């Protein structure tokens, strides 16, 4: 079984194309972003599967 890839926030924003980094951080503050983990060094990572699940819920809501 393939391992789930960890994405950085800049990588997630790049996949969202026209969304700015500040907008994505605001979504996270409002609890509207994908689930993420904070590493002991303060870096935030998002599993690709979680990112895809989050995108799917946005598509369903549209």
Please describe what this structure looks like.
This protein is α+β, with helices and mostly antiparallel strands. 50% of the residues lie in helices and 15% in strands. A three-stranded antiparallel β-sheet has the order 1-3-2. The model has no long low-confidence stretch (mean pLDDT 94).
Quickly give the structural class.
alpha+beta
- Tell the overall outline: globular
- Estimate the helix proportion, in percent: 40-55%
User: How many individual helices?
Assistant: 3
Amount of beta strand: 5-15%
Radius of gyration: 12 Å
Largest sheet: 3 strands, antiparallel
Secondary structure topology:
Blueprint lengths: L5 E3 H8 L4 H9 L7 E2 L5 E4 H14 L1
Antiparallel strand pairs: 1-3, 2-3
Which features would summarize this protein structure in a list?
3-stranded antiparallel β-sheet, 50% helix, single chain, 3 helices, 62 residues, globular
What's the short version?
This protein has 3 helices and 3 strands, in the order βααββα.
